[in-house]
Write a structure and sequence with these properties.
Blueprint: H1 2-38, H2 42-62, H3 64-82
Helix pairs in contact: 1-2, 1-3, 2-3
Amino acid sequence: MSHDRGMESLAYLVVGLLLAQLALGVVPLVFSLIYRIKGKFANTSQVLIILLALETIWGFTINNAFGIPGFVFVITAALIRYLPKK
C-alpha cells in the first residue's frame, strides 16, 4: 500500500516539474512579445531567454522530457525577439 503512495507522490512531483517548466517558458515568451509589439523590456527579454536556455540545458541533463518544453519556448521566444521586423 505504501509503495503505491510513493509512486503517486513521484508522479505528482514529475508533473509539478513539467508544469513549472511550462510556467518558466511562458515568462520569456511574454516579455519577447511585449518587446516585439511595444519595444519595451529589451534587456529583460534577452536575460530571460538566456536564463531559460540555461534551464533547458539543465532539463536535458536530467531527461529529454524535461528539456523539450524549455527548448520549444527558447526557440519561440528567440524567434519572436530577434527576427527582424518587416
